[in-house]
Amino acid sequence: MRFKNKSIKEADFSKYIEPVNKMLHGTWDLSREFSAPDDRIMSKIISLFNSVFSKLNTHITSILKSVVMLAANAPKLLHIAGTFRTKCEAQERNVAGISKAGVNMANRIEKVTESINTLTETANSIESDVHSAMELGDKSLKQITDIKKIVTELVDVIRVLDENANSIGSVIEFINDVSDESNLLSLNARIEAARSGEHGKGFGVIAGEIGQLAKQTKDATIDINSKLSILQEKVNDTVMAVERVAQNVETGESVINSSNTSLAEVYEKFSVFSENIRNINSETDSQNRDVKAVTNEIISIEEALKEQSAESKTIFDIVESINKICDHIIVDTGIFHLSNHKKAKQVAEKIASLPDILSGSRTRQENAMTQAVNDYPFIELIYLTDAKGIQVTRNIYSQKADKETNAAGIDKNWSGVEWFSVPKNTGEPYISRVYRSSATQNFCFTVSLPVINNSKLTGILGIDINVADILNI
Fold first, then answer.
1. Own/partner pairs for 219-223, CB < 8 Å, 24+ apart?
2. How many C-alpha atoms does 242 have within 13 Å on its Cβ side?
3. What's the pLDDT tens digit per position in 319-362?
4. Which of 175, 269, 164 is nearest to 215 (CA)?
5. What is the Rg, in whole angstroms, of the alpha carbon atoms belonging to the chain?
6. What counts of helices (H) and strands (E) characterise the chain?
7. Max Cα separation, the chain?
8. Neighbouring C-alpha atoms within 13 Å toward the C-beta of 146
9. HEC assignment per residue over 166-200
10. Of 264, 255, 257, which Cα lies nearest the Cα of 134?
11. DSSP letter string over 400-441?
């Protein structure tokens, strides 16, 4: 008897525990409540399972809510981190280019500074040379002035000599006249001496001597006159030469004066030019120092940007890791079916029983599905197949899915997938695990259920629900 009672209890235990065991090896429907027998012990055990699943439902829902919020922001954060990394890399490249350009500019300015320094030295040298030339010009002008004075005095002396030569010529003419008169007197004396006979001999001798003296005087006068003519000719030539020298001296004086004036103007202008060159040199030196300082700052910024770029890559990797972890958590929590999964299933059953869905008219079916997407914002995508798994409607997307209505789903064969085969074979609704939708790239789960018209399977209705909206059902 005790054996028999024991067997009955084992059978009852197996009856109530088997559903729990089955769920533990499949999808965990945490919204399900297992029925308990009248047996007190069994009732406590089943109640314990129900309590555990209820608490899991609450905690998993809370965890999923947090993860969904994090997962919703993770892609945005990943995008921001990626953009930040890209901008950091671009900024690093730009600053590296600026740094290189700054270094090149600093080198060029340094070369310009060196050239200007050389130009400044050359300008100073030229300025000094021009100043020396002006001093030499002044000295030359003084020397020319002294020469001019000497030449003027020489001209005056030569003119006096010419005048004296002319005076000597007058004296020679006078002596020549005296000689002629003496000669005439000697002639007359000899004539008179000849008349006087013996008494006139002494007088004749004197007359002869006077004649001889007159002749010598005449010859000397002729010789002096000849030499004086040569002297006058030479004096005249000298006067002309000295006059030409005087003219050349005046011309030289004019040229030197003109040169000195030009040199003074050049010196004045070149002094301004030299001063400008010196100012440019000073400004270039200052600019060179500033450019070097800026270049050093840019190099420092470049180093900081390299560190920032490396940190941005680290941030991106961390955010990418967080995004992947969120994806894994969402996918892993897909094994749990929560209370909102049950609500989603109830909505799907309501839609599947609509007359327009059962009508067989594609137009009415698509209109009804469009209305359902508008009525239930958590629906991301809805579609319908026939009993063989061939899609007979378009994919109807929600506006939030950010996709255009897609007709490509029509005539697609879904007969080999689980969301079609399970409700077809069991006649029961099917809730999938979480997956990333190939249509929208969002994390979704599918609720699919048979469409029954007059006790006949006419197709399978598939509804994709965005996990991010599951808590709003």
1. 221/172, 221/175, 221/176, 221/179
2. 19
3. 777 767 766 666 666 566 667 778 888 999 999 999 999 999 99
4. 175
5. 68
6. 7, 8
7. 238
8. 5
9. HHHHHHHHHHHHHHHHHHHHHHHHHHHHHHHHHHH
10. 264
11. GGT---BGGGTT-B-TTSHHHHHHHHHSS-EEPPPEE-TTT-
